[in-house]
C-alpha cells in the first residue's frame, strides 16, 4: 500500500514494559476511535509494513498502547520507536458540515463571498503553526489560512468551500481590480 492511499495516524513514541508493547501518540481528536485496531501500517524506510495488532487500548487517555504481532521484546520495540503509523483512507470516519480532512478538499474551488472564485485548492500546508490552503488561480499561487472564522460552508457536492478572507489578502495575490 502507498502512503497516498493512507492517512497519518500517529507516531510510536516509546516502549511500554519489557514484552514489546509500544506507546503511540495519535494525531486525532478522538483517540478512542482507534482502540480496537486489527492492523496498522508502520513506515519503515520508504515502505509501509503491515503489522497485526494483538491488543490496543488507551493509555492515560491520549496515548495508544499497542501490542503488535512479531514484536515481542524490548529490542524489537526499540527498533520501532519514532516510526510513523498509517491506516488506509477508507477507515477514516466521514465528516459532515464544515469539518473536513485536508486530503478530501484537494481540487475543491475556493469562493470568497466578496471576490468570488479565488482558485482551486492544490494542497494544504500544515507544516506551519497556521494550516493554509494552497490554491491556484490563473497561474498564481494563493495561501489562504484555514480558520473556522473564514470558512462559511463546505459544499462537498459542488466541490466548493465558501470563505471570507481578511481584507486585502486576495488583492495581495491577484492585485486590486484584477
Walk me through this protein's architecture.
The chain is mainly β and 178 residues long. The protein folds into two domains: 3-91, RimM (Elongation Factor Tu (Ef-tu), domain 3, Beta Barrel); 102-174, PRC-barrel domain (SH3 type barrels), CATH 2.30.30.240. The chain has helices at residues 74-80, 169-174; strands at residues 6-16, 21-26, 39-44, 47-59, 63-68, 84-88, 109-112, 116-125, 132-137, 140-145, 151-155, 160-163. A six-stranded antiparallel barrel has the order 1-2-5-4-3-6. Strands 10-9-8-7-12-11 form a six-stranded mixed beta sheet. Strand 4 and strand 5 form a beta hairpin. The longest helix has 7 residues, at 74-80. The radius of gyration is 20 Å and the shape is elongated. The protein starts with 5 loop residues before the first strand and ends with a helix. The mean pLDDT is 91.
Reconstruct the topology from this structure.
Elements: E1 6-16, E2 21-26, E3 39-44, E4 47-59, E5 63-68, H1 74-80, E6 84-88, E7 109-112, E8 116-125, E9 132-137, E10 140-145, E11 151-155, E12 160-163, H2 169-174
Parallel strand pairs: 7-12
Antiparallel strand pairs: 1-2, 1-6, 2-5, 3-4, 3-6, 4-5, 7-8, 8-9, 9-10, 11-12
Summarize this entry quickly.
The protein is mostly beta strands and 178 residues long.
Give the helices and strands as they follow along the chain.
Answer: EEEEEHEEEEEEEH
- As for the CATH topology of the largest domain, it is Elongation Factor Tu (Ef-tu), domain 3
Rg (C-alpha, Å): 20 Å
Largest sheet: 6 strands, antiparallel, barrel
What is the CATH C level class of the largest domain, in words?
A: Mainly Beta
Computed structural class: mainly beta
With strands numbered from the N-terminus, the spatial order across the biggest sheet is 1-2-5-4-3-6
Mean pLDDT equals 91
CATH architecture of the largest domain: Beta Barrel
Large-scale geometry: elongated
Amino acid at each position: 500500500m502507498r502512503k497516498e492511499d493512507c492517512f497519518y495516524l500517529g507516531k510510536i513514541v516509546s516502549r511500554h514494559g519489557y514484552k514489546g508493547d509500544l506507546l503511540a501518540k495519535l494525531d486525532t481528536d478522538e483517540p478512542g476511535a482507534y482502540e480496537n485496531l486489527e492492523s496498522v501500517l508502520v513506515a519503515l524506510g520508504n515502505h509501509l509494513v503491515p503489522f497485526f495488532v494483538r491488543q490496543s487500548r488507551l493509555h492515560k487517555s491520549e496515548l495508544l498502547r499497542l501490542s503488535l504481532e512479531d514484536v515481542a521484546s524490548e529490542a524489537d520495540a526499540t527498533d520501532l520507536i519514532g516510526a510513523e503509523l498509517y491506516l488506509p483512507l477508507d477507515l477514516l470516519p466521514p465528516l459532515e458540515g464544515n469539518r473536513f480532512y485536508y486530503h478530501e478538499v484537494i481540487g475543491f474551488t475556493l469562493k470568497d463571498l466578496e471576490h468570488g472564485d479565488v482558485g482551486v485548492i492544490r494542497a494544504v500546508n500544515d507544516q506551519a503553526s497556521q494550516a493554509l490552503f494552497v490554491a491556484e488561480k490563473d497561474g498564481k499561487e494563493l495561501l489562504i489560512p484555514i480558520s473556522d472564522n473564514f470558512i462559511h460552508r463546505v459544499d462537498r457536492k459542488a466541490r466548493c468551500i465558501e470563505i471570507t478572507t481578511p481584507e486585502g489578502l486576495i488583492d495581495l495575490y491577484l492585485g486590486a481590480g484584477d
